[in-house]
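Suppose you are handed a protein chain with no further information: no name, no annotation, nothing but its sequence. What can you learn? This example shows the usual starting point.
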Amino acid sequence: LEVRNNMLHCSASMSLLLAASTVNAVRLGGAPTMRRAVMPQMVATSPQVQPDAISAEAPLHVLIAGAGVGGLALANQLELSNSHVTYTVLERTNEFRKFGGPIQLASNAMESLKNLDAELYSEIEARATWTGNRTNGIKDGIRNEWYAKFDLESPAKSRGMPYTCVVERPELQEIMMRRTSKHIRTASGVESYRDNADGSITAVLDGGAEVHGDVLIGADGIWSNVRASMTDTPSRGDESGVSYSGYTVFAGELNYGGGDPECGYKVYIGPGQYFVITDIGRGRYQWYAFLARPADSEASEEKPEGMGPYLRNLFEGWSPEIHDIVGVTKESEIEQRDLYD
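A reasonable first move is to predict its three-dimensional structure. Written in structure tokens, the prediction is:
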């Protein structure tokens, strides 16, 4: 088995596809002649290859940095691989809590999950809110007229694929951790790694502790310390490869009875800003207000009356739907953050 030492930033969908290719490679590992080698995604290994074969007595130990969708998808496949492989997921946070809003799983991501693991797919499907079989598109924010509607239904239907859906992040993590929780270490963010003379890898954690393995998979997000260590660049800042998008975003999530049941999501666009409303299921909606602003504008733009009134003023003259949903959103239900690519 020969896989080049490469690194990729991947969406959740791409991570699932990589998990599929990885587990297929690992399933070949039951053969006693298989040697340790680099796996796909953002992977770090020593340039030396250990002479010993992978076996029940000497299994391949995979370290996965990050317990997001990509990291947990890979962990689930390693759990089911029936190969001589062990794994440890190293997660930075102390606990899994709600953050960042629901996750949209496109048709190809759902199809990948279905093919990878029918049981896991059925659990996710049971908690999904389908949006790909409804109206989705872009509207003029001021005239409140449709610019374009996206047909997400026909491509999925013609290929026999599931529709695009959204799933609450904590629920998705709960499902994906059901098999893998005993292999997850929280409060164990990977700070860096080093290659060892025997061909193994040592992951150095935030607090200085060390974890040893044969392969390190970097699934630690946009501010990846694995990537930074691999490329000898900072994980943040100008040389990190991560750039500011030019937008800051306000996000709100709430119980809302005024939504359009025919729509999955709407994007209202206008000069220098746009607004998104999406159904996330069970009577809950999420909205996003994207504003073209310099980085760190949160500290420089005063909002004496709160974020809701601030946004309603900025979107004055826009669709009444925007003002209605923002108007009933509590201040505690709104968060602001800058967007980076």
